[in-house]
What we know:
The chain is built from nine helices and eleven strands. The chain is an alpha/beta fold. The protein is globular, with a radius of gyration of 23 Å.
Amino acid sequence: xxxxxxxxxxFLQLISTPSHPxxxxxxxxxxxxxxxxxxxxxxxxxxxxxxRLLLNRIKVKPSFKFVGLGRARVGMKSGQxxxxxxxxxxxxxxxxxxxxxxxxxxxxxxxLSRNQFSPKTLNSIKGxxxxxxxxxxxxxxxxxxxxxxxxxxxxxxxAMKTIPLLIYxxxxxxxxxxxxxxxxxxxxxxxxxxxxxxxxHDLIPAAFAAVAFTDKHLRDHFxxxxxxxxxxxxxxxxxxxxxxxxxx
Length: 248
């Protein structure tokens, strides 16, 4: 081979090879502060860890901006952010493409085990004292509102971290809260703390969350990486990181 041909081939190889083959594409993901799903102070949480792990699989490195979910959606529409988490499932819109479900929220009714309550439906807890988070009536629908309105003592509490303690101290018969939020705060200082003192009543369907993207092709690529993830051991490991060992 003539020297100039060799040099030309070497040049082609140089320009076709990335200078940093392991460098990840960056992505700005908008979110909100809501432990244990999204934790601003250390950029972690169930939803963020899931999103980061799956994006890294497709060579994308997210940076998280904590702006609130309402502003996140508006910011995506204006091009300020390229993705947001969490968002709940909906039809795709131009500039707002929602992934397959990758996070499960588990609204759960809690009571003290020693009370031996065994409600089979939401209607079964009518007439009991009940605590939940602010806005619960609007979130869980008419059936829940009827239960709340029939309660002799119903309270929507701004500081969700106090709700497990209120049940533990028997200030209320029941509490309704996302399972992972409840155990996160109850076990905040000890992931081995005994949770058998509580009974769980699965009377409200799970809600599944996703990641929304401004780019449809990136969403589709993300979906490929996310197949089966929510049933995986990796997902269970992320949950355990924040709430310790609990049934999924």
